[in-house]
Amino acid sequence: MPGDATAEAFAYHLRSDIGTGFLHGIDCRPGMQVGGDTDLDHRAVVGVVTTN
Questions:
Q1: What would the pLDDT profile of 26-40 be if each residue is shown by its tens digit?
Q2: Are 6 and 36 in contact, with CB atoms under 8 Å apart?
Q3: CA end-to-end span of the chain
């Protein structure tokens, strides 16, 4: 992923249907919810919550 990737862009990178149903991400290290426009840090560990 590029350095300016967002949580939603990561979801679309996985699969288009995951990106379409994207609700929010989970930053797995602190366990905090992140929005779709949150910039991801290098080597971030992110879970994706979708409607699909």
A1: 999 999 999 999 999
A2: yes
A3: 23
